[in-house]
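Thread amino acids onto this structure.
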């Protein structure tokens, strides 16, 4: 496993000044997939516009549980839910401006895998890590495919960690993006 690299990070404490185009500087480890990709359960909170994508998985990993909070300079906030040392969900707590594009499709080449997040390398009691970075979001016209770019644009491979949840990982093993596929529409106000 690569060492856990952090630059602008705080463990549930004071955050460093945002560096809008800095690379999210913590390494993850890509592991072979086991079986078919798990389903994703999407949930909208109509009061807050929070979108949660939870992986329905019974796989057990070794490692800590907690969250990695990716915080954009514009107030955007994307949480990666870590259970047993593996990413098991994404929560869009505060949306960045979303740029709608005529068509948006996941990359043609996608590998199936599991992503291990070494929270333990931050210290035994750390359950939450906050990282300042740029977050850019784009969606197709129907907002069923949403892509979050994390940090500056850079080469990356795409890993399917669940049926409708993909991560872009750069050559240094750092998260470069998050894909949410087949997102249900936001429930209409009743």
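Threaded sequence (190 positions):
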């Amino acid at each position: 496993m690569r060492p856990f690299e952090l630059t602008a990070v705080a463990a549930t404490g004071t955050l460093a000044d945002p560096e809008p185009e800095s690379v999210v500087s913590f390494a993850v480890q890509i592991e072979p997939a086991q079986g078919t990709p798990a389903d994703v359960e999407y949930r909208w909170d109509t009061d807050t516009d929070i979108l949660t994508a939870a992986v329905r998985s019974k796989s057990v990993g070794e490692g800590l549980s907690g969250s990695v909070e990716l915080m954009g300079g514009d107030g955007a906030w994307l949480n990666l839910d870590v259970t047993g040392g593996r990413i098991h969900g994404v929560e869009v707590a505060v949306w960045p401006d979303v740029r709608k594009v005529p068509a948006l499709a996941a990359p043609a080449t996608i590998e199936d895998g599991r992503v291990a997040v070494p929270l333990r390398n931050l210290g035994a009691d750390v359950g939450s890590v906050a990282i300042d970075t740029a977050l850019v979001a784009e969606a197709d016209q129907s907002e069923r495919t949403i892509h979050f770019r994390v940090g500056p644009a850079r080469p990356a491979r795409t890993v399917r960690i669940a049926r409708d949840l993909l991560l872009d990982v750069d050559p240094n093993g750092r998260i470069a993006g998050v894909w949410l596929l087949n997102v249900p529409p936001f429930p209409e106000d009743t």
